[in-house]
Amino acid sequence: MARFWITLSLASVARASFDSNLNYNSPSRRHPSLGIDVPRVVKRGLDYDSCDHDQLNFTHGVASGDPYPNSVILWTRISPQKANDNSNVTVEGNVPLYSHETEQYIKASPNPICVDYQVATDKDFRHVADKGTAYTTSDIDYTIKIEASHLEPFTTYYYQFSVCGSIKKSPVGRTKTSPDRDDDVTNIGFAVFSCSNYPNGYFNAYGNVARKDKVDYIIHLGDYIYESGKGTMGKDARATNPAGEIFTLYDYRTRIALYRTDPDLQLSHQKFAWIPVWDDHEVANNAYRDGSSRMNNTEDSFIKAGGVSVEQRKMNAVRAYFEWMPIRQVSMDDNLRIWRAFSMGKLVDLIMLDTRHYDRSITTLDFNNEYISDIKDDAGRTLMGSHQENWFLGQLSKSKDRGAVWRLVGNQIIFSRMDNSAWLKGGLNADQWDGYTASRNRTLSHLYTNQIPNTIFLAGDSHANWVSDLVWLDTKPYDPVTGSGAIGVEFAGTAVSSSGYGRNYTHANTVSRRLVEDNRELQWAEGWFRGYVELQVGREEVVAKFLGCPTVATRNPYEISLANFTVVAGENRLKRSVAGGKVETGALQRGEVRGTNLTVDTETGQWKVRGFEQMYIQY
Ligand SMILES: *[C@@H]1O[C@H](CO)[C@@H](O)[C@H](O)[C@H]1NC(C)=O
Ligand SMILES: *[C@@H]1O[C@H](CO)[C@@H](O)[C@H](O)[C@H]1NC(C)=O
Ligand SMILES: *[C@@H]1O[C@H](CO)[C@@H](O)[C@H](O)[C@H]1NC(C)=O
Ligand SMILES: *[C@@H]1O[C@H](CO)[C@@H](O)[C@H](O)[C@H]1NC(C)=O
Ligand SMILES: *[C@@H]1O[C@H](CO)[C@@H](O)[C@H](O)[C@H]1NC(C)=O
Ligand SMILES: *[C@@H]1O[C@H](CO)[C@@H](O)[C@H](O)[C@H]1NC(C)=O
Ligand SMILES: *[C@@H]1O[C@H](CO)[C@@H](O)[C@H](O)[C@H]1NC(C)=O
Predict the structure, then answer these.
(1) What number of helices (H) and strands (E) belong to the chain?
(2) Which of 16, 114, 125, 270 is within CB 3.0–4.6 Å of 164 for a Cys-Cys bond?
(3) Is residue 548 a contact partner of residue 560, using CB atoms and an 8 Å limit?
(4) Strands 530-538 and 541-549
(5) PhoD-like phosphatase metallophosphatase domain spans which residues (predicted)?
(6) Alpha-carbon radius of gyration of the chain
(7) Is-contact 172 471, C-beta < 8 A?
């Protein structure tokens, strides 16, 4: 009888700690049949005391994200193996629990693995604000995702995980809660990233921001990973793992895990709370609701993908993403929902969108580009689906009503018109908002009709810098000289490491020049440099600094200031003269391309950065 009671109480303790790992609740603890059957996992292994602690490692550092005023998400992975769990979900909704466990692994470390965590205001953990226990198993690839609570707003915290009953500890992470809704916060700094392609180059941009340490939070607009394979492991320094294109759950886990071995990315996750959304490549190129350019909804594609359908692939990608990213699932019954919002004091509302996977109508898939350009103005086309779009427009209004000074829209693709004839045949890139004019018109109509001020769109995806006044051409008057008539601003940033445009430096600037000539609301264009945007949001103004990495062919800490822009609160346009009338490179609508630190040898076309050494940032 006594024994019976012990077993029962152990089971309930274990159950509670399983619940604290949010990855077991995905998609919903109310619907175990749709996700992981936690009672079954609990039953399978109460023997966590017997696991061999020496064989367990924190394999991929720590991470934090989705800051709220009193809580933040903390992440780590504690595993008896570096490799990812290789179970494959083969039938939708049928998650095999046992099939993947090898005899050897069971001997080395029986499920589950137990960790304690603590969160404190100091690095030595003398002032602990929250602590707890969580379990993980192979079912969720040994990931741990917990919500630290009882925290104070806009406060820096340190956190650490440790294996229960062992001295083995994770690295110490740093994070920061968001300001309370009504706090009179005066400044919030963000670094905005997109398009980090591991085999294409080094993640110097991530590292530079972490070392400079001038922002509060990281925004990532997607293409955090890429699905295609490149290079040979053991031969090429940045070869992908898996080697080829990814399809299965194991594949997506392994690919994200590879990216997370990058020291600059790890450093960024360790130092900052991240607020990411996905773009297309987290699943596959030019993805939309029902497919991508990398896969058709056909038997042929199914066979080529080794028996993975379009829907299955998307489910695999999304599941691995939620396992590995330090973010909240804000609607437990809607496991494709990543769109969410953050109220940061009276200063800013940050609205993160999913213009890709949630409910997007068909996009350009290479073979259908002509068809898409024919239907781009179809009123029935949608980028977000009505559920998300109504929420988005509602958020903009609510934000104005509550008196938040700024609205930042974290969106994947470029909102403004891009007459692209300078480098794209036909001139139309219908994979951007240009291919969904009805959605764009509804957004603009909402902004103008409700006179919603101080909206700043952010975009990634394009691997180039585009800075525009937010305008409704042919409907609302707009003066490109003064900016009057505009309703906001768009800052679209270059990639961390994906390639931009231009065959050489001179050619890139020629293309940029053509682009600003063809698009009068486009005030600055630049396509040569990899980098990021640093956004300092204040009550009186927002300053956007565009930084460029001279090269991503090596791991290095150099960067150059490309251009700075100011938006004055209440003006709803870029401050004149735009960029202070001078930029370092690219093409400025009315102003000077100064090239203080960048010089071009006109004979060879080679470009050089003057004072390269002075711009060294200590590792
Ligand atoms: C974990 O770390 C220990 C000590 O650093 C090492 O001996 C062991 O091989 C590692 N285990 C795995 C699975 O990586
Ligand atoms: C899952 O898929 C991967 C890649 O196709 C394969 O290597 C692995 O053996 C599969 N695992 C199981 C348990 O079937
Ligand atoms: C999808 O179908 C189109 C049209 O038949 C074809 O051109 C394209 O290659 C297919 N894509 C894939 C990834 O199989
Ligand atoms: C969107 O508005 C523009 C005018 O700015 C108009 O030319 C276009 O037809 C509209 N598109 C749709 C789908 O309403
Ligand atoms: C040019 O380089 C100098 C020193 O290296 C630096 O102080 C200055 O800010 C740089 N200017 C730009 C526009 O990057
Ligand atoms: C941007 O502003 C910084 C100061 O914050 C300055 O050092 C840099 O030179 C400016 N860059 C350009 C291109 O004007
Ligand atoms: C740069 O690229 C352009 C366009 O391909 C080409 O015409 C030009 O010769 C190149 N310049 C040099 C110096 O290679």
Answers:
(1) 12, 25
(2) 114
(3) yes
(4) antiparallel
(5) 190-546
(6) 24
(7) no
109 C-beta closer than 6 A to ligand 1: no
Give me 571's structure tokens: 């003006």
Report the alpha-carbon distance of residue 555 to residue 203 in Å, rounded.
7
Q: What residue type is 181 in one-letter code?
A: R
Distance CA 467, CA 155 (A): 32
b/e map of 379-411 (b: 16 or more CB within 10 Å)?
Answer: eebbbbbeebbebbbebbeebbeeebbbbbbbb
Ligand 6 touching residue 437 (CB < 6 A)? no
d(C-alpha 204, C-alpha 200), whole Å: 12
Question: Could you report the average pLDDT of every consecutive run of 10 residues in the chain (619 residues)?
Answer: 41 71 77 72 61 85 98 96 72 37 36 91 98 92 96 98 94 98 98 98 97 98 98 96 95 97 98 98 97 94 93 94 96 91 98 98 96 97 98 98 98 96 86 98 98 98 98 98 98 98 91 96 97 98 96 90 97 98 96 84 71 52
Structure tokens at 548: 């460029």
Closest listed ligand to the CA of 441: 4
C-beta of residue 138 within 8 angstroms of C-beta of residue 84: no
Contact of 96 with 37, CB cutoff 8 Å: no
Q: Which two tokens stand for residue 27?
A: 């998609």
CA distance 197 to 21: 29
- Residue 366 Cβ < 6 Å to ligand 3: no
What is the spatial distance between Cα 523 and Cα 510, in angstroms, rounded to a whole number?
A: 15
Task: For residue 27, say if its preceding peptide bond is cis, omega within 30 degrees of 0.
Answer: yes
Atom of ligand 4 nearest to the CA of 440: 1
Give the distance from CA 474 to its chain's centroid.
33
Cα 534 to ligand 6 centre (Å): 12
List of domains in the chain: 2-175 (2.60.40.380), 180-223+326-609 (3.60.21.70)
Which atom of ligand 1 is closest in space to residue 80's alpha carbon? 13
Q: Which two tokens stand for residue 50?
A: 């017997």
* Strands 217-220, 187-193: pairing kind: parallel
The token pair that represents 17 in the structure block = 């700690």
Q: Which residue has the tokens 């063809």?
A: 518
* Cβ proximity of 137 and 128 under 8 Å: no
Residues belonging to the chain? 619
Question: What would the DSSP string read from start to end of 6-23?
Answer: HHHHHHHHHHHHHHHSGG
Q: Report the alpha-carbon distance of residue 352 to residue 408 in Å, rounded.
A: 8
* Cα–Cα distance measured from residue 231 to residue 239, given in angstroms and rounded to the nearest whole number: 4
Amino acid (1-letter code) at residue 276: P
Q: How far apart are CA 22 and CA 29, in angstroms?
A: 9
